[in-house]
Amino acid sequence: MKTPPQVRSGRLLSLAVLGVVAGLGVQGALAQSDNCAGAPALPMGNPVPNTGGFTLDGESDCNALSPDGWYSVTSPVDAELVIEACQRTMSPTLSLHTGCPGTSANMVMCSFRDSYACNGMSRIEAPLAAGQTYYVRIAGGANVVLTTFLTTPDVVGGQGPDVISGDIPEMARYQNSGGFAAMALGSAACNPGTENVIWTNQNNSNQHPVISTSMYRLKDGIIEQMGYAWMKHGWASGTETWCDYCPTTGVFPYLIPGCTDSYDVPQNGTQAILGPRSEINPTTGFFPYPPANPNNIVDSTTRRIRVPQTSIDPALNVGAKYFAELHYVAADDAAADNAMNNASYRLISFPNANATPVFAGQTQRTKPAILAWGDNEPGVTAVAVTFINSYTNPDHEREVGQILRKELPDRFLSLSVDIL
What is the arithmetic mean of pLDDT over 365-374? Predict the structure, then answer.
């Protein structure tokens, strides 16, 4: 097993680099080879591998005995390769190898319908060294459309325990009520640090992260938080491969460096297990446990991401952009001074007023949704931050201010807690 590197992925490579890597267009469809040694370049985009009539030419540690096809990939720069079949009803076995023939001995990673953060389908995300050729094995799952892309390694993990929001992999929408819509996000947390992140609620322990989900709208040059959910508590950590290769398997009371833990929408959207945001100190990560559970669930929107229906109706919000935000808060992460990289956002859209939102871009790791403003409005010169309850507890607003001063040093910044 390889040692998990301290570099994580974040941004898509340019189309020019993708063309060099693939040897053809981004949506290229060059057929894969029956043999590892003759593998053509992996197309970036949505290739449709077909292993019908192929023979067994390799093996992996995941469901190995199936006819397989092969692609190769060589990146001109250090990068991370992502191959996924998250939105499919059938999923092949995916594995990445450093040589031919592809075997368990030269396997970098594999996946077979085991990614919770990929709808239970197959997904691999692996670091590639510049100039080295790797071989992608696709076994079974004939004619399944894959999604493939490369990202640049631009996120560096901190020393000690470090939790980041690795991905927002899925969304759900619930029944409207009283003029409001309700939504929930799936979540995937990664540890790019050098030590375990404590992740347990055993014996009512509060030594675990809490998960914040929310939604923002950018309209007419103004970004607003439209709604947020109560907090999901992390109970125990899995050992998924998502941000990097996880070197072990099992369920543990800590998140191991290189590993991922995820929660699907049914968990993050279950109203009865969500706790109040007001109990969480977002700077230190301290909170009482178990959380308060008042008898206040009155409809489908309670405790979920609750937004006015009019705010997401495309007919009433022409040109608006929407962003889902995921934010993990953990006490040991904060104590190690690694709390400033915990939030990530992802561009979403609403096909119509009553539709479930769909993803319109990749997750922007370690970037809170407030930074989507500058990413999408280059003319932004000043930022004002006003949290509705900051007058009672200014910590969260000041933490956002720290992030903005670091990421947008040339913008004028105003916090409501600093205005008398």
Answer: 92
Q: How far is CA 326 from the centre of its chain?
A: 8
Query: Sheet harboring 164-167: ordered strands across?
Result: 164-167, 187-190, 260-263
Cα 354 to Cα 37, 122, 259, 279, 335, distances in angstroms: 50, 30, 36, 33, 43
Q: Does position 14 have pLDDT exceeding 50, yes or no?
A: no
DSSP 236-252: SB--B-SSS--S--S-B
- Residue 27's pLDDT is 30
Distances (CA, A) of 169 to 166, 363, 392: 9, 8, 34
Q: How many residues in the chain?
A: 420
3-state secondary structure of 368: coil
Give the residue from 166, 112, 182 showing the smallest Cα distance to 141: 112
In this predicted model, what pLDDT tens digit does every residue of 307-338 receive, in sequence order? 999 999 999 999 999 999 999 999 999 999 99
Provide the token pair at 21.
């890597």
Are the C-beta atoms of 213 and 228 separated by less than 8 Å?
Answer: yes
Tokens describing residue 326: 């995921």
Given a cut of 60, whether residue 11 has pLDDT beyond it is no
How far apart are the C-alpha atoms of 158 and 164, rounded to whole Å? 10
Alpha carbons 97 and 245: distance in angstroms, whole number: 13
Which two structure tokens, joined as six digits, stand for 78?
């250090």
CB proximity list for 88: less than 8 A, separation 6 or greater: 121, 141, 144, 145
Q: What is the C-alpha radius of gyration for the chain, rounded to an integer number of angstroms?
A: 22
d(CA 138, CA 142): 9
Query: At 69, which helix (H) or strand (E)?
Result: strand 68-74
User: Which of 359, 280, 361 shows the shortest CA–CA distance to 327?
Assistant: 280
